[in-house]
Amino acid sequence: MAEPQAKLDAFPVFMRVKNRACVIVGGGAEAFAKARLLSQSSGDLVVVAEAMDYDFAEWLAARDDIRYEVARFHPSRLDGAALVFAATGKEDTDRAVVEAARAAGIPANAVDRPHLCDFYMPALVNRAPVAVAIGTEGAGPVLAQMIRARIEQILPPSLGRLATLAATYREAVERLLSPGSARRGFWQRFFGGEPARAVAAGDIAAASRAAARILESKAAARGHVALVGAGPGAEDLLTLRAHRLLMEADVIVHDALVPEAIVAMGRRDADRIAAGKRKGCHAKTQSEINDLLVGLGRAGRRVVRLKAGDPLVFGRAGEELAALRDAGIAHEVVPGVTAAFAAAADFALPLTLRGVASSMVFTTGHDLKGGTLPDWARLAIDGATVAVYMGRSVAADVARRLIEAGLSPDTAVAVVENASLPSKRQLHGTLADLPSLQGRAELTGPVLTIIGDAVAGADFSRSTPLAAHLPALAQA
Ligand code: SAH
Question: To bridge 159 with a disulfide, which of 127, 233, 343, 443 should be the other Cys (CB 3.0-4.6 Å)?
């Protein structure tokens, strides 16, 4: 159901440049800009230009850490270089520089000539030793600068000092704390607690004292399981809390409905366990999942149990919570945007509507298959809006039973496959049209159906009529 993730044509890496030559060929404004950027690194900058702009020459003359030569470019100038920048302003010369670099096995960048580049220069947020590089593969330098400006705001200027201080604790942490959650716990408290606050306030000594206190306390790792709602699928419908817990988790146990892009948001080194269950392909039974969560909690791990939508809506959360409670394992629940809300949003459909619908039912179609009418059918007849989960394969039963119970066949119905995702498909019609859903084998993603008079107020401009498929079902 998830969109395939687009692939990067340029993959970001961080080049080691300390004490290695970085050669810039050119003496104009572009070369000057590159020189300024590269002077933020500890690489040995070398500028080669036949002629040099006055302000560039003045800037170079004022610094003793940059070599420059007023000379014609010659391939021998590139000897031993880590990176080469062609910024002569002339296509032919830039090309010659790039070719010389490639012949020597050195990656080259030609300013404003993406077709000649082995690598692109990212927009840079520098909090050395921490760096954030933003690349757009040349698609949007302005976009890159806008993103950079926002990241500049988020990252405190003291971040570099904090990271430098952290490096001085690495050895002690490895010696005193066991790998895994103990070490991670230390670093979380280091970067998110008192040491970080003290560094921000400019008091490195206080930061060191706070770090030492955390190190001594060696608080034993306590297992914790969070049942987290991943939302309906769109990555940006995840809550901030869900995102934070994902970043902190040692283990992510996820359902098949949760898109890969959200599972991937956790730490790279977190364990990821697929717990199943998509219709027809069960990976683990519910009691196996319960045992797994309890086992991980007992082992002191920080677990995120990631479920589609909201974990408490048709998520088997009851069983998992009971198992955790019985085993005495700390746990919490983080709500998510449930499919019904995402589906309603896709249709701009008010679930409650003054004078029309004042209650709402979350149901699965499956209990309509039995002989007795469930109580909620009466609510529907009294005007409740009904959201049907897992209802595609029982659409005909749902429609038939509700009509038999007295709901008008003209009652409005809205259906969404893959709600909230770019791949969503929207359908609409009446209760009488609903059975056609069952015949639509092309709907392979999760499907949510909303029934009720409030649905009539929805926006159907991006939706196709269900009725168009009725004849196909009649034949079936
Ligand atoms: N806990 C989930 C529901 C899990 S049951 C929630 O709160 O949303 C699985 C059913 O949820 C699917 O059969 C489908 O009816 C519905 N569903 C989940 N994601 C959906 C989506 N993006 N679009 C439409 N329906 C979805």
Answer: 127
According to the model, what pLDDT value does residue 35 have? Answer: 96
Q: What's the predicted TM-score (pTM) here?
A: 0.62
Query: Contacts by 153-162 with C-beta closer than 8 Å and gap 24+?
Result: 155/125, 155/127, 155/130, 156/200, 157/127, 158/199, 158/200, 158/202, 159/127, 159/130, 160/126, 160/127, 160/128, 160/129, 160/130, 161/199, 161/204, 162/191, 162/195, 162/196, 162/199, 162/200, 162/207
Tell me the CA–centroid distance for residue 389 and ligand 1, in Å. Answer: 6
* Residue 132: φ, ψ to 5°: -115, 125
What gap in Å lies between CA 468 and CA 476, rounded to an integer? 15
The residue range of the domain holding 56 is 21-121
Core vs surface per residue 332-360: b (16+ CB within 10 A) or e: ebbbbbbbbbbbbbbbebebebeeebeeb
Write down the pLDDT at residue 139: 78
Nearest Cα neighbor of 411 from 384, 439, 448 is: 384
Per the domain annotation, does 145 fall within a domain?
no
pLDDT score recorded for residue 277: 58
User: Is the CB of 401 inside a 6 Å radius of any atom of ligand 1?
Assistant: no
With a cut of 50, list the residues of the chain below it in pLDDT: 219, 472-476
Question: Per the domain annotation, does 144 fall within a domain?
Answer: no
Distance CA 266, CA 279 (A): 26
What is the structure's pLDDT at 216?
Answer: 83
Rounded to the nearest whole angstrom, what is the distance from the C-alpha of residue 308 to the centroid of ligand 1? 7
**Phi/psi at 260 (5° precision):** -55, -35
Q: Is 293 in contact with 225 (CB distance < 8 Å)? A: yes
Please give the single-letter amino acid code of residue 168. Answer: T
Q: Give me the pLDDT at residue 221, please.
A: 53
- Is there a contact between 31 and 121 (Cβ–Cβ < 8 Å)? no
Q: What is the pLDDT of residue 200?
A: 83
At 282 the pLDDT is 58
One-letter amino acid for residue 399 of the chain: A
Beta bridge partners of 228: 306, 334
- Ligand 1 proximity of 230 Cβ (cutoff 6 Å): no
Atom of ligand 1 nearest to the CA of 312: 1
How many distinct structural domains can be found in the chain? 4
Cβ-based neighbours of 287, under 8 Å, separated by 6 or more: 319
What is the three-class DSSP state of 241?
helix
Q: Is residue 204 part of a domain?
A: yes
